[in-house]
Amino acid sequence: MGVLAEPLRRLSEYREIEKNQKEGRYPVGITGCVDSQKGHFIANLGEKAPCRLVVTWKEEKAREMYEDLSFFDRNTMHYPSKDILFYSADVHSNHTAMKRMRVLKRVAEREPLTIVLCFDVLMEKMIPPEAFQEASLTIGLDSVIKTDELRRTLVEMGYQSSGLVEGPGEFSVRGDIVDIFPLTEESPVRIELWGDEIDSMRSFDVESQRSIENLDEVRIYPASEMILPQDRMPEAIRRMKEEYTRQAEVFKKEKKRQEKERLR
User: Fold this and answer.
1) Domain of 239?
2) Are residues 42 and 76 in the same domain?
3) If you placed Cys at 183, which of 54, 212, 223, 227 could pair as Cys (CB 3.0 to 4.6 Å)?
């Protein structure tokens, strides 16, 4: 970054901004930058910060900013916004959830990170950080695995049970073999059991089923941002029904038939 920052440090205005930063004089306003310059400025001005948040005004601009910043900072990640209109969302893909959960994993592990997002994301409700941490699952070679309990835990974490693991967010239990494809990882994990003890644990390739690397420990993060344990589901369903009834009545009085049907 030093070589790329040198042209900026020749500017008296840039040196003044750096001085204000060191003295803690905020906010600092910068105007007159074209889009291609913004990534250069942000990457250098925030170089010493362990975690940076870059907020822009719409999703398309966030993706563009991510592409620009990635050139200067390899720790840049895009945190995409949700599609809240269910009837236009691609319900068959967990690509957006996967990208979001990978960012949350990096935040939880306190790794150096630059997060790029649009303003809409800041308005979304999220579970508390401590709840996200508690919902993650750590499995080591000395762990005791009861397959029924593990299956229930993974389902509560948002994972889909499958006969054969093919993509992120899926798991499979076949006798003494447990396959889990963490949503935050590039490869699934295979756990071979001897009774309720772990005999071996390794990552493997989905296509060839060949082992990649032996593992001593794996950390599995939730596959869903909304974690709902079994004992809380009845209360959640009751509250959803109450809210649905109340809002449906509002649409009925306002003669908004289309909105009422979408809600149903």
Assistant:
1) 230-263
2) yes
3) 223
Domain CATH for 138: 3.30.2060.10
**Domain match, 9 and 116 both:** yes
- With b for 16 or more beta-carbon neighbours within 10 A and e for fewer, the 50-75 pattern comes to eebebebeebeebebbbebbbebbee
The 10s digit of each residue's pLDDT in 164-186 is 999 999 999 999 999 999 999 99
Q: What is the pLDDT of residues 45-77, one digit of tens each?
A: 877 788 899 999 999 999 999 999 998 888 999
Q: What is the pTM of this model?
A: 0.78
Element (H, E) at 251: helix 233-253
From residue 114, alpha-carbon distances to 37, 45, 55, 261 in Å are: 17, 12, 11, 41
In angstroms, rounded to a whole number, what is the distance separating the alpha carbons of residues 253 and 257? Answer: 10
- Domain boundary (87, 122, 157) is at 122
Q: CA–CA separation, 197 vs 145, rounded Å? A: 6
Which amino acid is residue 227, in one-letter code? Answer: I
Question: Total domain count for the chain?
Answer: 3
Query: Per the structure block, which two tokens stand in for 236?
Result: 């959640």
